[in-house]
Amino acid sequence: MALAAQPTENRTHVQQLPLTDHNAEPEVLEIGYKRGSTSVRQSVLLCLLALAAAAFAGSQALRNGLGNPLWAVGFLTSGVLTVLIVPLTVRAIWRMARGRPLLTLDGDGVTLHSARVTLPWSNISEIRITHTAQKGQTISTIVFVPVDAERATAGLHGLRRRFAADGIRRVGGPIFARVHDLALPLDDIIAGTRRLTAAPVRHQHHLDAGS
After folding, report:
1. In the chain, where are the structural domains located?
2. Residue pair 14/3 in contact by the 8 Å Cβ criterion
3. pLDDT tens for residues 103-123?
4. Residues 6+ apart with CB under 8 A from 191
């Protein structure tokens, strides 16, 4: 049974699904990328722009001297963006090309392979589905929210830790994905989680002010 709040700009309801026997042999649910994933295409474009900006700023810095603060700052900024974006984008493209999963749900927890981040079920407080209205369409994102954010990033280093910490800050969890990028329908994903965990599934609706 779904419990819904009164309609407001931000609404939350809990999706109750029948639980199965958690003592049974847990299944492994692998969720791949949908062919023509929008987010992957956007990441590739952003990656190319970062590389182009770094190359241009670098050439200008060499031509005009690193003493020029404008080009020096531009080169450093674009260089940092390139370092942050390129590895994750390349890994995501490589996995998609080889038909490897983006997400794996198993008896141990959830793994986001592109960022190499794993969250055990014992540290998942809820599975949050956010539905955000943007320019006449709804963008849905699945987020695995940790019980303890510090424990979720413990043991992670470098880009993995930065990615997880940024995800917790922006969307509430270190593991998240846009639903329209996933090859498996949302209902099937939710049903799969219920066979692996008793963590609640909560839907959050963020509506435009004019909706």
Report:
1. 3-32+101-206, 38-97
2. yes
3. 999 999 999 988 889 999 999
4. 17
